[in-house]
């Protein structure tokens, strides 16, 4: 299946919107959603500016900043030298002193070269300065597995950034999420890590007139119930929300009603929504592409055990990426990231429709 | 970068190169050989139609000449970059020196601040040795860099310090009591007791918080300078760091970005010879820091860091160029760290005690500046002893006060993590308060709820 995605990705010009013309509702790609959110916030606030490698003349490695250089000029759409630590530090300094930078990483893997500025400088300065220095900055770019790009382009950093107080961490799935959350991130006075997904950029989603309105914004820290259900709760974020929804369709055919929660916000984590859902369904499957140890699923599991232990009718099932750096070969890569069938199987185990994992070990 | 991006990117580069390549050849074929000006050399081919030194390459970044000699650039310049100074070791102006004049009042104010800084460092250092505070760093030997650079700047200029520049904050009006409150992390500390002693910061004084992470302040200063430039403010950003800090990637990234972004920023390197126990010979093999500026396209100067007038003049000129020409300037101030790195080390374990003594006695920047103001008839022994006694009394008083003030309240633990506290922090604070109230006997009594 990932092979198919990869082919599609290579053949499709990544800068053109991929639209489902057959649908009657207005459709928008995640790429256009991000682009329009940036455009509107830059237009609304002259303090907002975009910086990173290739964001200007080249229009962004993934064309997220298409047209922005032409519209806002080179002072607000800055092509930087190739030093993540440099432009991230400069972004943080600009945020200390009145600007609202949006820093683009070509992939979040490369943010590792700049993590000192994200963690030690951006996340801690408001606290360390006793509120004298706030850091209104957004770090954004593709995160997690793409297709066929190996270990140093495929790592999911949600749990890394999610573990650090002072940061807010968002992970959009749909075009509605992308628009609403990016606008919220730019308007927020705190530093926000905004984790996009390369494979979702070209995906189209229906969008309402409300979502398209320039005032549209989503609350940070609130999850969205994408699909209501009563038998099992599935939590997911980013691309895995789509997988969870597909798994829910399969499960429905077999008589299992799954509730799918799109986390949207990794930090703050919407523990209330997750726990309320588990108290209703009594079963939980967490899904993420990142590694299992100390992962987002581990944190959700801990939260449910702390707050809703008595409501659980089955052990929590955790679906995550394999505990290895991402292999390149397509056959191995497919095995290293969660698949829809994995989610279906886990949900069935949780619902006692198949042998529990422990019994097979 | 995805596969498709990489493929597209390399195509663009190839096209770009091709067009330049073609330009280059069309230019060079059009050029006629100038044989009359051609001096025959041993390895020149007499049949060559184009003398090679007449050819230029139209390369991105500008035209370059070709030469027939295979010449490697030397790893060092023949002569070390000289050091600008105004006053000699006896505080006498050097003949023909080029410096900014200062008035009597201003010179005396500078001297007062240098002595205040020296005294504050002594008293706070002693307080640490007595176990009253946990940590301290002195500026001993670097008082001139601290005070004279601060005196040359405008209050609108934003300071991004390392951790040995408390004199800049002192010059800007942070009171001795405010310094003491921070070191004792009491409830009046403007940082709410969140940072180690000597990690000051004050928005009011345009002085960013001291970061323990070495050199991160350098790119931050460039970012702030960019912000000042965008707002068209008549100000620059100023960042300080040591010789050790210049080895961090952030130093190199900061200089490169500042040059490319044409940011009004002054980089002040206090090259004091030692990064904790590492001497500069183990830190770099270049001629110090100053030569690195040119490699990044940044105008640079080397200054005697123990000469207050030289520092004052150089920083004022640097500020003028940075602000009016929107450009970065690098200043390498040569000095010596007379104190230990911090209260956590004993520097006599890694460097000779007589080396320290020589710098302390013969090269003291405070004494040198005093000689100059005395020579001008602006200072005398009586003024000196009055000033030192009064500062000592004031400082002893401030630490007594700071010590007796309550520590920060419990609420200060949870505020400012975010602009608006999220629900989980509210919940934690509430639960903690309830627990403390319920079991007061197991909690320390020095926390007000």
From TrEMBL, chain A:
Cofactor(s) it depends on: thiamine diphosphate
UniProt catalytic activity: N(6)-[(R)-lipoyl]-L-lysyl-[protein] + pyruvate + H(+) = N(6)-[(R)-S(8)-acetyldihydrolipoyl]-L-lysyl-[protein] + CO2
CC terms in the record's Gene Ontology section: mitochondrial matrix; pyruvate dehydrogenase complex
Compartments where located: Mitochondrion matrix
Keyword Metal-binding included in the entry's annotation: yes
Residues annotated as domain Transketolase-like pyrimidine-binding: 28-203
Catalytic class of the enzyme: oxidoreductase
Any single GO BP term: pyruvate decarboxylation to acetyl-CoA
Enzyme Commission code: 1.2.4.1
Pfam families the record matches: Transket_pyr, Transketolase_C
Gene Ontology terms for molecular function: metal ion binding; pyruvate dehydrogenase (acetyl-transferring) activity
Principal subcellular localization: mitochondrion
Function: The pyruvate dehydrogenase complex catalyzes the overall conversion of pyruvate to acetyl-CoA and CO(2). It contains multiple copies of three enzymatic components: pyruvate dehydrogenase (E1), dihydrolipoamide acetyltransferase (E2) and lipoamide dehydrogenase (E3).
Subunit structure: Tetramer of 2 alpha and 2 beta subunits.
Protein name: Pyruvate dehydrogenase E1 component subunit beta
Source organism: Medicago truncatula (Barrel medic)
From TrEMBL, chain B:
GO biological process, one term: branched-chain amino acid catabolic process
Keyword Acetylation tagged: no
GO CC annotation: branched-chain alpha-ketoacid dehydrogenase complex; mitochondrial matrix
SUPFAM superfamilies from the UniProt entry: Thiamin diphosphate-binding fold (THDP-binding) (SSF52518)
Catalytic function, reaction form: N(6)-[(R)-lipoyl]-L-lysyl-[protein] + 3-methyl-2-oxobutanoate + H(+) = N(6)-[(R)-S(8)-2-methylpropanoyldihydrolipoyl]-L-lysyl-[protein] + CO2
Biased composition (Basic residues): 29-42
Major localisation: mitochondrion
Keywords: Metal-binding, Mitochondrion, Oxidoreductase, Potassium, Transit peptide
Pfam families in UniProt: E1_dh
Dehydrogenase E1 component domain ranges (all copies): 113-408
Cofactors named for this entry: thiamine diphosphate
Signal peptide: none
Subunit structure: Heterotetramer of alpha and beta chains.
PANTHER family: 2-OXOISOVALERATE DEHYDROGENASE SUBUNIT ALPHA 2, MITOCHONDRIAL, 2-OXOISOVALERATE DEHYDROGENASE SUBUNIT ALPHA, MITOCHONDRIAL
Family, as annotated: Belongs to the BCKDHA family.
Record's protein name: 3-methyl-2-oxobutanoate dehydrogenase (2-methylpropanoyl-transferring)
Species of provenance: Medicago truncatula
Recorded name of the encoding gene: 11424992
């Amino acid at each position: 299946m990932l092979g198919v995605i990869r082919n599609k990705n290579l053949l499709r010009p990544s800068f053109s919107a991929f639209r489902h013309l057959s649908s009657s509702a207005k459709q928008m790609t995640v790429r256009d959603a991000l682009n329009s959110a940036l455009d509107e916030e830059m237009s609304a606030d002259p303090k907002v500016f975009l910086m990173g490698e290739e964001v200007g003349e080249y229009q962004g490695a993934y064309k997220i900043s298409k047209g922005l250089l032409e519209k806002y000029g080179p002072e607000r759409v800055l092509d930087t030298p190739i030093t993540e630590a440099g432009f991230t530090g400069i972004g943080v300094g600009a945020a200390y002193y009145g600007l609202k930078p949006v820093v683009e990483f070509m992939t979040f893997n490369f943010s590792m070269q700049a993590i000192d500025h994200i963690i030690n400088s951006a996340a801690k300065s408001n606290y360390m300065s006793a509120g004298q220095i706030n850091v209104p900055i957004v770090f954004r770019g593709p995160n997690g597995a793409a297709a066929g790009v190996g270990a140093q382009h495929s790592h999911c950093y949600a749990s890394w950034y999610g573990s650090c107080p002072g940061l807010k961490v968002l992970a959009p799935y749909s075009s509605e999420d992308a628009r609403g959350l990016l606008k919220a991130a730019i308007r927020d006075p705190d530093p926000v890590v905004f984790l996009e997904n390369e494979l979702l950029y070209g995906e189209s989603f229906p969008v309402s007139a409300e979502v398209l309105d320039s005032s549209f914004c989503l609350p940070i820290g609130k999850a969205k119930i994408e699909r209501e259900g009563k038998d099992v709760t599935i939590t997911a974020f980013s691309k895995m929300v789509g997988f969870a929804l597909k798994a829910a369709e399969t499960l429905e055919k077999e008589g299992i009603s799954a509730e799918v929660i799109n986390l949207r916000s990794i930090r703050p984590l919407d523990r209330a929504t997750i726990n309320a859902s588990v108290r209703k369904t009594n079963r939980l499957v967490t899904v993420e592409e990142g590694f299992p140890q100390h992962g987002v699923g581990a944190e959700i599991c801990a939260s449910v055990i702390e707050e809703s232990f008595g409501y659980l009718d089955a052990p929590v099932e955790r679906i995550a990426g394999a505990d290895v750096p991402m292999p390149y070969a397509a056959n191995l890569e497919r095995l290293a990231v969660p698949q829809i069938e994995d989610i279906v199987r886990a949900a069935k185990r949780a619902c006692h429709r198949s042998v529990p994992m422990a019994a097979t070990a | 970068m995805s596969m498709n991006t990489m493929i597209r990117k390399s195509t663009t580069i190839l096209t770009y190169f091709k067009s330049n390549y073609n330009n280059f050849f069309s230019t060079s074929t059009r050029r006629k050989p100038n044989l009359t000006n051609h001096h025959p050399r041993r390895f020149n081919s007499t049949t060559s139609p184009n003398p090679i030194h007449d050819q230029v390459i139209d390369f991105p970044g500008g035209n370059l000449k070709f030469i027939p000699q295979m010449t490697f650039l030397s790893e060092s310049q023949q002569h070390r970059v000289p050091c600008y100074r105004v006053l000699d070791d006896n505080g006498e102006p050097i003949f023909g020196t080029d410096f900014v004049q200062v008035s009597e009042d201003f010179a005396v104010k500078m001297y007062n601040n240098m002595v205040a800084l020296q005294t504050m460092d002594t008293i706070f250092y002693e307080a640490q040795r007595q176990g009253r505070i946990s940590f301290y760093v002195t500026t001993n030997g670097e008082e001139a860099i601290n005070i004279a650079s601060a005196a040359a700047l405008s209050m609108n200029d934003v300071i991004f310090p390392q951790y040995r520049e408390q004199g800049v904050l002192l010059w800007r009006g942070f009171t001795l009591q405010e310094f003491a409150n921070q070191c004792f992390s009491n409830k009046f500390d403007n940082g709410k007791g969140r940072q180690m002693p000597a990690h000051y910061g004050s928005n009011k004084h345009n002085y960013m918080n001291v970061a323990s992470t070495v050199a991160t302040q350098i790119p931050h200063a460039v970012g702030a300078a960019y912000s000042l430039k965008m707002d068209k403010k008549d100000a620059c950003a100023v960042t300080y760091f040591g010789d050790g800090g210049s080895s961090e990637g952030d130093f190199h990234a900061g200089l490169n970005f500042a040059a490319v972004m044409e940011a009004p920023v002054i980089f002040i390197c206090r090259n004091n010879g030692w990064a904790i126990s590492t001497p500069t010979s183990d830190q770099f093999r270049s001629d110090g820091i100053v030569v690195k500026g040119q490699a990044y396209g940044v105008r640079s100067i080397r200054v005697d860091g123990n000469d207050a007038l030289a520092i004052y003049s150089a920083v004022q000129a640097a500020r003028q160029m940075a602000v009016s020409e929107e450009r970065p300037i690098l200043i390498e101030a040569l000095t010596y760290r007379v104190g230990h790195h911090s209260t956590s080390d004993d520097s006599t374990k890694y460097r000779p005690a007589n080396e320290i003594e020589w710098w302390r006695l013969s090269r003291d920047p405070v004494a040198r500046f005093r000689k100059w103001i005395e020579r001008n008839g602006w200072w005398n022994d009586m003024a000196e002893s009055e000033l030192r006694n009064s500062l000592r009394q004031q400082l002893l008083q401030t630490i007594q006060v700071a010590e007796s003030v309550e520590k920060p309240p419990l609420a200060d633990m949870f505020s400012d993590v975010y602009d608006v506290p999220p629900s989980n922090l509210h919940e934690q604070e509430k639960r903690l308060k309830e627990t403390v109230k319920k079991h007061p006997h197991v909690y320390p009594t020095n926390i007000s709820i």
